[in-house]
Design a protein that fits this description.
The protein is an alpha/beta fold. It has one domain: 2-Layer Sandwich (Nucleotidyltransferase, domain 5). Helices cover 48% and strands 12% of the residues. It is built from ten helices and five strands. A five-stranded mixed β-sheet has the order 3-2-1-4-5. α4 packs across α7.
């Protein structure tokens, strides 16, 4: 084998080993985070920076048993930040997550905030709303509020309605969120550091992609099935040609086109 080819293969092999090692660190990160609690919930979003379509968040609950189980040990190295995976890889992992959820090995839920809610609350407020909806599919906010356990002198109603505080740590990708109803830890670049956050990023991405493909059939010509509502040359050209549809984010479009066209020609932002 030529020396040059050996060097290329060695470099490539080293890169693949480093990549696999980094992915294994996601599971190791979660094993450290779960040491003092019974479970972890990873939360991430998709679509925050798009010009069109909803923002989608997902929440994935895992236990120490899952993290030390066969699937996590043998197959979790394939999980990564959804942006680093191909569409086929994300779909394959989605199917596996669905099977794991059916088997009771993990619990997952997603939440959606519409374009109207993005316009009303701004993108940060809408993202928090989608994350709250995703978490509510697993635990209500009240489950994390400390409560005094009823004693023998409490009423029957108090004893029967008592719900102990759950032993769970919530990890959200990014900085901590202000005025959020769930106690949580913000993990910067969490989808590249935590297995459960990376799993949530995949579920959020696949869910949103499917919604955008459905929108493409309702509003043909914009190319939603291809760019998923993000800012591409083809998408911008389509908006200029067709005008905005009800699923475009008006503020995002105005910022995008500000200074690029004559303000008198901004009529294209009117809904088609």
């Amino acid at each position: 084998m030529p020396a040059g080819l050996r060097e290329v293969l060695a470099l490539r092999g080293g890169f693949l080993c480093d990549s696999a090692m980094k992915r294994r660190q996601l599971r190791g990160f979660d094993l450290k985070q779960i040491e003092t609690v019974a479970s972890l919930i990873g939360v991430d979003e998709a679509g925050r920076g798009a010009l069109a379509g909803p923002v989608v968040a997902a929440a994935v609950l895992v236990t120490k048993e899952f993290l030390e189980g066969r699937w996590a040990i043998a197959k979790a190295h394939r999980v990564n930040d959804s942006k680093q995976l191909t569409a086929a890889e994300r779909e394959e992992l989605w199917q596996e997550f669905e099977t794991l959820a059916t088997q009771g090995q993990l619990h997952a839920h997603y939440g959606v905030a519409s374009v109207d809610e993005i316009e009303e609350r701004n993108i940060l407020g809408a993202t928090k709303l989608a994350m709250r909806r995703a978490l509510e599919g697993i635990y209500p906010p009240g489950a994390f509020v400390a409560a005094i356990e009823p004693d023998l002198f409490s009423s029957l109603e108090q004893r029967e309605s008592f719900q102990p505080r759950v032993s769970c740590r919530i990890l959200i990708d990014g900085l901590p969120l202000k005025n959020f109803p769930y106690p949580h830890h913000g993990i910067v670049s969490g989808d590249a550091r935590s297995l459960c956050i990376a799993m949530a990023s995949i579920i959020a991405k696949v869910t949103r992609d499917r919604l955008m493909v459905a929108l493409d059939t309702q509003f043909p010509g914009y190319g939603f099935a291809q760019h998923k509502g993000y800012s591409t040359d083809d998408h911008r050209d389509a908006v200029l040609r067709l005008g905005r549809c009800p699923h475009h984010r008006t503020l995002f479009l105005r910022k995008l086109f500000a200074g690029q066209i004559d303000p008198a020609q901004m009529d294209f932002l009117a809904e088609t």
